[in-house]
């Protein structure tokens, strides 16, 4: 009886031990794959090209020219050299239109003039001056034609006086004959012809200095734009070069294609620094700029931020079945030798941290980053084979893999929306309005750095810049 009791006790102890062993969690202590050394975040940047077709109405040039050119245009107070004094004023507003001539389209400027003339007739005999002077006021219309080109940020015109038509033609008596005063004045037109041409050229050039406006607009655009307060994501444009075709006159407007070469990025964290320096930008002339914009955007996602997103996928999930189940308590990610290491802190039938690695890929349908050929790191796999073979099996790994993804749809949408903010009647300065449209975002590639994954995306579209009343 005592012997049987001893056997029973031993059996119960063994049973308890076995039961205890089967219900106690197994520990795993795999070697941690250390991340690559942290270095400043650098990655391959692809320039973007933004086309800015500018349309300037002749009416705006007319208004600006009238504000700059007023009052006395020409004055000759010396009568001794040619027996004539002349003062010329702009009498009424200038009109500027398109002249469709045989030589192509040119600016046609009609300038109403008021001319005051003092004319002297007489002789000088034996040192005695016998002169008679008479003053006249005349009204006339000067017609000028201008060729226009773009030179160093300005519309440069070359103006030629084509005709001068007098509204009235008073006469004066010269040696007993009535002579039209315009007949006497017309030879003197050559005196103020060059002055009027120069005045028109100067007024057009001064009214059409693009540099301050363009650089001011680019400076504003290059200031980082907060896309999401919650994610602290920023959209940043870094200008590199500015291009322009020559100005063309078409119908009632000047057409000017400008282009901006720049880098575009979305960044997470504190507001990035804007390093725009307008002193470094020269306007480069080109023959043609494509009509569509091509924006290449780098969406920077740090491993810390990506880990936070992946943690939400594992929340509340269990992997395995029966007594062989684990929960993922925390996810962390980093870069190691061209792959992403994913650490999973486990709690359940297995306690400890396991490490997986894989190559990030992009799912264009779900707009998600996922990891291709995800597998346990070699040391982790060998330890699991010895302690928890069931966890190392493909079916469990496949289920874990399904949670190892995170969406960048919000990043893509934010990037698109931030660009659209510049294309919906955006006015960087008074009188300038930017509108356009964008096509769907195209994913390009993922590039790994020691600190972040960079998703490169491309967007095509069109942009139009309208100038409504130059200031």
Key structural traits:
single chain; 471 residues; alpha+beta; eleven-stranded mixed β-sheet; 25% helix
Please provide a brief summary of the model.
The chain is α+β, with helices and mostly antiparallel strands. The chain contains ten helices and 26 strands. The protein is rod-shaped and about 130 Å long.
The number of strands is 26
Number of helical regions: 10
Mean pLDDT: 78
Distance between the termini: 113 Å
Helix content: 10-25%
Q: What percentage of the residues does DSSP assign to strands (E)?
A: over 45%
Shape: rod-shaped
- Low-pLDDT segments, ≥5 res: 5-23
Main sheet characteristics: 11 strands, mixed
Q: Radius of gyration over alpha carbons? A: 40 Å
Structural class label: alpha+beta
Description of the structure:
It is a single chain. By secondary structure, the protein is α+β, with helices and mostly antiparallel strands. It has a domain at 58-207. Helices cover 25% and strands 50% of the residues. It is built from ten helices and 26 strands. Helix 2 (58-68) packs across helix 4. The longest helix has 22 residues, at 2-23. The radius of gyration is 40 Å and the shape is rod-shaped.
